[in-house]
Structure to design on (569 residues):
C-alpha cells in the first residue's frame, strides 16, 4: 500500500511538472491572441484534473502505462485545443515527449523493485538504482569511481558534503552486502550473492591499495574489510542454523533423551547444509574463497563446541555411548564421507570433534561400564550353571548328546562387548583388558568343577559330559587369532581349559578303572600265562560296556588331541 501511495505521489509530481511545462507554452509572444491563450489554460486545468483522477481511480497495470496516459492526453487536447495552429501543435509535441520520458522512467523504477536478481538495465543506472536491482558489483564500481575522482585530486581541501555523501553511500552498500550474505542459503539469492562476492574482491583490492597511503590521507571508510565482514557473518549464520537445528530437524524425535535428539539434529543439520554448499553455493563463490572448506570448518567448530558443553555435563551412560558413536562412527563416516562431500572436504584437516581430555573422560565412563557388564554376564550365567549342578539337574539332550547353553549364551555377549570397545575406542589394549576377565572366570570354573566331582551325585557323569562341550567351545573361541587376546592371556586361558578337560577325563577314567580293577588282578597270573584267553576277553567286554556309556558324549569330546596349543588332552 505504501508503495502504491508513493507511486501515486510521483505521478502527481509528474503531473505538476506537466502543468509547469505547459505553462511555459502559454508565455508566447504578444502575437498570440489573448482569447486563444485563455482557452488553452482552461483546457489544461481540465486536462490535469482528469489525468490525476484517472491515476487515482485506476486499478489495473494497463491503466498506468505511458501509452494509456498519452492516449488520454491526446483525447483531452483534441477537445480543448484549437486545430490548425502550427505553434500550438509544436508545443504540444514537445510536451508529449517530455511526459513520455518521465513516465517511462517511473515505470522502469517500478520494475526495479519487482526484480529478484540482477538484470541488465536498458539504461545506465545510478548507485541507488543498481542497489535496487541487486547489482552490487556495479554499485560498488560506481563507489570506487567516485572515490578515485574525489581523492585523486592533489588539492588538499575537498568538498565536505561530497565526502560525507560518499561515506554514507559506502555505509548503505555495506549494509546491503551484509543482508545479501546473511541470506546466502536462499535459492532466490544466488545471482545477487555472486554480484556481492565480486564486489568484495574489488573492495579487498582497494583496501590493499590504500594500505600503502598514510592514514590521514585515506578516506575515513578505508579499510572497509568486506572480506572480514563476510567471514564473520558466515560464522554467525552457521552458529544460528545449528542452534535452530533443534527445532527444524524432526527425524530425531524417536530417540529416548533430549540430549540424543539434539546431537542427532545437529549432525543432520551439518550434513544437509554442507550438501547445499556443495550443490548450490560452491558455484557462486570464486575459488579464492575456498568456500567448501570454510563452511566445513565452521560447521565442524559449531558442532564441536556444543558437544564439549554436553560432554562436560552430567550425562548418562546411554548418552555417553551416543556421543561416542557420533564422534567415531556417524560423523566421520556418514556425514564427512558422503559421496557428494568427500571430494570437496578434507576431513583430516578438521581435527577432532572433542578435545582429548573430554574424549578420554567419555571413553573411561564407557569402558568401565563394559568391564562391569562382562563381569556381570559371566557371574550371573555361571551362578545359574552351578546351581543346576548343586540341584543335580540332568542336562539337556540335543541331537542325542548332553549339552549346556552356558558357553553359547556367554561367548556372543563377551565377543560383542569386545567388538564395541574396539570400534568406539580403537584401542587394542582395552580389548585385551576386557578379555583378561575370561582368564579369571575360567579359574573359578575350574575350582567349581573340582568341587562338583567330590560329591556323590547321580547326574555328575552327565553334567561333566555337558561341560566338556562348554570347554571345547571356550577353547575354540580363545584359539581363534582374530579375537584380540594378549599372548599371556591366551596362554593362561588355554592352560586352564586343558586342566578342565583333564578333570573331566580323570573322573571318567577313574570310574572305568574302578570297575576293571578285579580283572586287572587276573593279569600276570599263571592262568593268564598258560594261554587261557578268557581273561583278555573279559577285559575287552568290560571296556566295550564302558564305552557304550559314553554314547551320549559328543564325538569331538571323545577324541584325544595331542596338538592343543602344546597341551595334551
Amino acid at each position: 500500500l505504501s508503495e502504491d501511495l508513493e507511486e501515486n505521489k510521483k505521478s502527481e509530481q509528474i503531473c505538476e511538472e506537466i502543468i509547469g511545462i505547459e505553462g511555459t507554452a502559454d508565455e508566447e509572444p504578444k502575437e498570440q491572441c489573448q482569447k486563444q491563450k485563455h482557452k488553452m489554460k482552461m483546457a489544461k486545468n481540465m486536462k490535469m484534473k482528469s489525468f490525476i483522477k484517472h491515476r487515482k481511480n485506476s486499478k489495473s497495470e494497463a491503466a498506468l502505462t505511458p501509452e494509456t496516459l498519452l492516449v488520454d492526453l491526446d483525447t483531452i487536447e483534441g477537445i480543448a485545443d484549437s486545430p490548425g495552429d502550427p505553434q500550438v501543435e509544436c508545443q504540444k509535441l514537445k510536451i508529449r515527449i517530455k511526459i513520455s520520458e518521465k513516465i517511462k522512467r517511473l515505470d522502469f523504477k517500478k520494475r526495479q523493485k519487482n526484480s529478484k536478481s540482477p538484470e541488465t538495465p536498458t539504461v545506465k543506472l545510478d548507485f541507488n538504482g543498481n542497489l535496487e536491482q541487486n547489482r552490487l558489483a556495479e554499485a560498488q564500481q560506481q563507489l570506487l569511481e567516485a572515490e578515485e575522482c574525489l581523492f585523486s585530486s592533489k588539492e588538499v581541501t575537498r568538498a565536505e558534503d561530497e565526502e560525507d555523501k560518499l561515506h554514507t553511500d559506502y555505509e548503505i552498500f555495506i549494509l546491503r552486502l551484509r543482508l545479501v550474505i546473511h541470506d546466502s542459503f536462499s535459492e532466490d539469492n544466488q545471482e545477487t550473492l555472486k554480484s556481492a562476492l565480486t564486489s568484495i574482491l574489488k573492495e579487498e583490492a582497494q583496501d590493499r591499495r590504500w594500505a600503502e597511503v598514510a592514514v590521514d590521507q585515506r578516506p575515513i571508510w578505508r579499510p572497509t574489510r568486506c572480506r572480514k565482514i563476510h567471514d564473520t557473518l558466515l560464522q554467525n549464520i552457521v552458529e544460528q542454523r545449528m542452534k535452530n537445528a533443534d527445532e527444524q530437524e524432526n527425524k530425531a524425535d524417536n530417540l529416548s533423551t533430549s540430549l540424543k535428539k539434539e546431537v542427532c539434529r545437529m549432525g543432520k543439520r551439518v550434513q544437509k547444509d554442507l550438501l547445499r554448499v556443495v550443490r548450490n553455493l560452491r558455484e557462486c563463490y570464486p575459488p579464492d574463497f575456498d568456500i567448501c572448506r570454510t563452511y566445513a570448518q565452521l560447521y565442524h567448530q559449531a558442532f564441536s563446541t556444543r558437544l564439549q558443553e554436553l560432554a562436560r555435563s552430567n550425562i548418562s551412560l546411554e548418552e555417553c555411548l551416543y556421543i561416542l558413536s557420533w564422534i567415531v562412527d556417524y560423523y566421520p563416516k556418514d556425514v564427512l564421507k558422503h559421496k557428494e562431500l568427500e571430494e570437496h572436504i578434507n576431513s583430516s584437516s578438521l581435527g577432532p570433534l572433542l578435545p582429548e581430555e573430554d574424549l578420554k573422560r567419555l571413553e573411561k565412563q564407557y569402558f568401565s561400564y563394559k568391564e562391569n557388564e562382562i563381569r556381570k554376564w559371566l557371574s550371573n550365567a555361571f551362578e545359574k550353571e552351578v546351581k543346576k549342578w548343586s540341584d543335580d539337574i540332568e542336562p539337556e539332550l540335543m541331537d542325542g548328546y548332553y549339552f549346556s547353553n552356558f558357553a553359547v549364551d556367554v561367548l556372543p555377549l563377551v565377543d560383542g562387548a569386545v567388538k564395541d570397545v574396539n570400534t568406539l575406542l580403537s584401542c587394542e589394549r582395552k580389548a585385551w583388558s576386557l578379555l583378561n576377565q575370561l582368564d579369571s572366570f575360567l579359574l573359578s570354573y575350574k575350582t567349581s568343577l573340582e568341587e562338583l566331582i567330590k560329591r556323590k551325585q547321580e547326574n555328575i557323569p552327565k553334567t561333566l559330559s555337558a561341560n566338556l562341550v562348554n570347554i571345547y567351545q571356550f577353547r575354540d573361541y580363545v584359539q581363534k587369532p582374530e579375537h584380540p587376546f594378549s599372548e599371556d592371556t591366551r596362554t593362561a586361558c588355554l592352560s586352564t581349559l586343558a586342566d578342565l578337560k583333564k578333570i573331566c577325563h580323570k573322573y571318567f577314567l577313574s570310574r572305568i578303572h574302578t570297575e576293571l580293577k578285579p580283572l586287572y588282578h587276573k593279569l600276570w597270573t599263571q592262568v593268564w600265562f598258560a594261554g587261557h584267553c578268557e581273561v583278555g576277553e573279559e577285559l575287552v567286554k568290560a571296556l566295550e560296556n564302558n564305552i557304550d556309556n559314553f554314547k551320549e558324549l559328543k564325538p569331538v569330546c571323545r577324541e584325544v588331541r595331542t596338538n592343543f596349543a602344546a597341551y595334551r588332552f
Observations:
- Confidence is low (pLDDT under 50) at residues 10-84, 88-116, 561-569.
- The chain has 20 helices and two strands.
- The first strand starts at residue 396 and ends at 398.
- The longest helix spans residues 356-390.
